[in-house]
Amino acid sequence: MDAVVVGAGMSGMYMLHKLRGMGLTVQVFEAGDGVGGTWYWNRYPGARVDVKSMDYSFSFDPELEQEWEWTEKYPPQEELRRYLNHVADRFDLRRDIQLETRVTEAGYQEDAQRWLVRTDRGDEVSAQYVVMATGCLSASKVPEVPGLEDFQGDWYHTGHWPEEGVDFTGQRLGVVGTGSSGVQAIPLLAHQAADLTVFQRTPNFVVPAHNHPIDPEHQRSVKANYAEHRRANRESAFGIAVPPPTKSALEASEEERNAYYARGWYDKDNQLVSLLAGYTDMITSKEANDTAAQYVRDRIAEIVKDPEVAAMLQPTDHPFGTKRPCLGTDYYETFNLPHVHLVNVRKTPIVEITPTGIRTSEREYEFDSIVFATGFDAMTGALTRIDIRGRDGVALADKWKEGPRTYLGVAVAGFPNLFTITGPGSPSVLSNMIVSIEQHVDWVADAIGALRTGGKATMEASAEAEDAWTRHVDEVGRTTLYPTANSWYMGSNVPGKPRVFLPYIGGVGPYRQKCDEVAANGYEGFVLSA
Ligand code: NAP
After folding, report:
1. What burial class does residue 145 get, using C-beta atoms within 10 Å of its C-beta: 0-12 exposed, 13-18 middle, 19+ buried?
2. 186 C-beta closer than 6 A to ligand 1
3. CA pair distance 388, 113, nearest whole angstrom
4. 464 CA to middle of ligand 1, Å?
5. Ligand 1 within 6 A of 143 CB?
6. Which atom of ligand 1 sits closest to the CA of residue 74?
7. What is the pLDDT of residues 485-503, one digit of tens each?
8. pTM, full prediction
9. Residue 448 contacts residue 129 (beta carbons within 8 Å)
10. How far apart are CA 199 and CA 372, in angstroms?
């Protein structure tokens, strides 16, 4: 093949479409038995995107974006999966996607200047280019506590939920984790379970989603001006165009600030970034950030009737936004229900899973089922779980032992012609993912096109360019409050993972400019070989 693409989520599907359009032969391998990536695997109750549908959709084909009709402000997983299946059919992608096949190895063969890719089904494919479209949040993890194999009930992870769904009616249910997945699932699980216990290690900031059917007039007006709408998103900081802030939160009066935060909290058209996007220093000044954090804590105290439970739900150990904030529907309200209980596992950690439930340092809880909403080995996990070996047989997992090193988050020195879509060191998870995915796929396709027209066999990030970019990602990260939190952005949720700020916070627009400059300067920082 000319190219192997690993993964048939949004990145892999679009990469296939692009490369095939350039006349390349492409083989896509996908572990699931369907396309859609994140929206294939995350089928837990309440799973929905928290970027508005009009923004969270492909922009590469004007007809596609005009013909698809969204139904809700934030589409549920089922609708996103339908959309991605539609994309697969519309662009006839399936014939080059091999499902139920996990890539296990990719090794660079120096003599041939090609990659040899192996799968768990015994495939062996030689390819000139390998594109890792493996997703930032796809390597799921359950807590490292003993005993799970002896649990006699059923257990589930939100990140690979059974296709047929699960009915917890009448059950005693335990849920571990209160990140975005837990926050979305808990209110719906509470409707089903007879008794629900939530194990919370860190309370999160949860802003009301105000999801609602999409206004047809709004949909029409965005579509009438879609090219401009998309351009603004591409040039924005987070891939969602919002008016740029002009002043510090500390320059505004308390009244003015609270009026602004109230719009972010109560307005039915609010979005994830609403509370954070109003002032210039929300992610750089703790004092400024505290004004919004306190606003949210006050709302929690208003909603949750039991003051002790309210206090447990109020985040105080990290600035607002430094762990991924969540959008919720009736999240805090759920803790007013008599059959819903909250356990602080920061205070009384989970020590083991027993045959009948969960034991904390304080007591044992008995359950019929357990749901782990415990997240992912983010950004690097999906890559390092594959045995990827570059020049001299060096393993990517070894190279990244002290933290990922990339050039632009898309290439790695020593790994020629290997590209990582939304890899560590790119804006990725700090942005509207689909905007970043399209930018990377377009850039990689252009780079491969340039290699072919220029008669070059390989491109490889130079060690100097990689060093400089890795330093830059770290330096920009350090100008913000992000490194002060224990978050998956910092790798802190995986024991032993180096503490490194994984994404690039320089902004989607400026990052795109930098990538375009690199290309315009003949792929500056890359070594191109004949
Ligand atoms: P997550 O944000 O990493 O949350 C995992 C939760 O499990 C955290 O509350 C974590 O506590 C807890 N946890 C992990 N290990 C634990 C242990 N050993 N004992 C007790 N608690 C433990 O994972 P997620 O909720 O699946 O979300 C991951 C990311 O996926 C999100 O941040 C978001 O980017 C994306 N996502 C997006 C959407 C959406 O668009 N709507 C929905 C779901 C997910 P600590 O905080 O203390 O580590």
Report:
1. middle
2. no
3. 15
4. 35
5. yes
6. 41
7. 999 999 999 999 999 999 9
8. 0.98
9. yes
10. 10
